[in-house]
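Write out the bound-state structure for protoporphyrin IX containing FE.
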Amino acid sequence: MPPPPLPSLASRRPGASSSAGSLAVPPSTTRPPPQPAKRGKVALAPGHGPLDWANLKKSGQNLRGVDTVLRVTPSMLKRHKTRDDAWSSFNGKVYNITPYLPYHPGGEKELMRVAGRDGSKLFASTHAWVNIDYMLDECLVGFMVSESST
Ligand code: HEM
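---
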């Protein structure tokens, strides 16, 4: 017996039901693909990528701005809230965030929101997966203590 005739091209239009089954052209569309959710990443200035930050950390420069590890009270923390002198605490550890500002993939403005205060909640709600203790180890200023304990 001869083989069955090949299905005509017309029956291979997208979505056309035919005996061609899986040979049919997959359905297609000219609609643009959905855009991924906006994540607020900013374009970093040249020389300010993650590798540049890693190199700066290794360079031996003092990125803490202090000579010893400090006991930091809430009122001390509050005094360091300008771009050139910004501290922030994350889970009890206080970091000098000034040197990291131009390297922050979310932008300086976002990072400055936590200058002079506890940034733990904002940090956890934006990117809990980022290892802050590793990223900012060279920027450690000290540890939070209560107001009366210094
Ligand atoms: C000093 C502590 C911080 C470090 C070390 C840090 C580090 C990072 C890193 C590595 C990324 C890229 C994440 C990725 O690609 O998955 C990022 C992105 C971002 N960060 Fe931060 N960040 C800090 C604090 C903050 C704070 C306090 C905020 C909010 C006020 C914030 C907001 C953002 C946003 C909006 C993005 C871009 C969106 C995203 O990738 O999810 N960051 N940050």
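---
Helices lie at 50-58, 74-78, 108-112, 120-127, 132-135.
The first helix runs from residue 50 to 58.
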